[in-house]
Design goal:
Layout: H1 2-25, H2 32-63, H3 70-73, H4 83-89, H5 92-130
């Protein structure tokens, strides 16, 4: 269930980031309010990406039988962006880096989904044998 939700959020994140990138490529300058909203949207997407990475780590740790990282489990984040870093988030390089991060997370979620599916199939097979 987490994997499906993660996948949906990642796809929405990618779609919104692509729309944001296309909006930035237009030759017309954005009105101040639109630019502010675009920057706020991007900040929220970056936060969402960080949360998804945390959830991925927690699920992976639990799948390996380990105790989860409590700071991740409680949603405690140590990363805060400075004003300059926030400005860089909307630069082409900043967007490209975030896109790479999202694609990597997408791959990791798919790998996790496969591992969970394999484990479920193994458990079902073991159940059939014991019955």
């Amino acid at each position: 269930e987490f994997s499906v939700q993660n996948q949906d959020l990642i796809e929405k994140n990618l779609t919104l980031q692509e729309r944001l990138r296309q909006a930035e490529l237009t030759t017309q300058p954005l009105p101040t309010e639109t630019a502010r909203l675009a920057q706020e949207l991007h900040s929220e997407l970056a936060s969402c990406l960080q949360d998804l990475q945390s959830v991925y780590s927690i699920v992976t740790q639990r799948a390996q039988g380990k105790d989860p990282n409590l700071s991740l489990l409680l949603g405690i984040h140590s990363v805060q962006y400075s004003a300059k870093e926030k400005d860089n988030l909307l630069s082409p390089d900043g967007l490209a880096k975030k896109l790479v991060d999202v694609k990597q997370l997408h791959k990791e979620v798919e790998d996790l989904r496969t591992a969970i599916s394999d484990r479920y199939a193994q458990d079902m097979g073991d159940n059939c044998i014991t019955q």
